[in-house]
Amino acid sequence: MEMPIPRKIARAYEDIVRRKKTAPFIIFIFFIISFAIARLVVITFEGAALIVRQYHIHHFYYGITLISIAAWIGLVSNKEKLLTLASALFGIGLGLITDEIGLLLTCNSEGLNCDYFARGSFDAAVLISLFFLAVLYFHPFWRRASRLYKRIKGRGKPF
After folding, report:
1. pLDDT tens, position by position, 95-106
2. What stretches of the chain show up as alpha helix (H) in DSSP?
């Protein structure tokens, strides 16, 4: 009989905790959730926007603020709960910034033609997700690659 899905998830999380990869896991989960929620909110409430003195406040500003707060917490604290909070804030901020990458890359000052749904946002989200998956789940691969690099570097010969 095959193991039920909740047990598989619990085992995968236990492995993450054992290998001390909890912070990247929390960042990854909150990144995915915040990217999805930001995209859903923009699609659902298309006309809604925060305007302050004729300036449209995009959600990448919130993302930058959250990443800054997370960095500060990470620098000044060594308490487990605060570091978990910093990981969550960093993931949320990264998701909000990534969601707006298409807008940031396509906006120009001539007529303000911006494409919020540019493919760059999705490409960036996929690449960031793959990076986190590599950090979380490809430890043996990275260990072998590191050994190979050290062995090649130790010979002192260029490729």
Report:
1. 999 888 877 777
2. 5-18, 22-44, 59-76, 80-99, 101-106, 119-137, 139-155
Kindly state the tokens that stand for 55: 């300036």
Who contacts 104 (Cβ-Cβ below 8 Å, separation ≥6)? Answer: 60
- Find all residues with CB under 8 Å of 150, minimum gap 6, and list them: none
Question: What is the SS3 assignment for 118?
Answer: coil
Q: Domain map of the chain by residue range?
A: 20-155
The whole-model pTM stands at 0.74
Q: Which residues contact 134 (CB under 8 A, 6 or more apart)?
A: 141, 142
Q: Which two three-digit tokens encode residue 149?
A: 């690099």
For residues 31 and 128, the answer to whether their CB atoms sit within 8 Å is yes
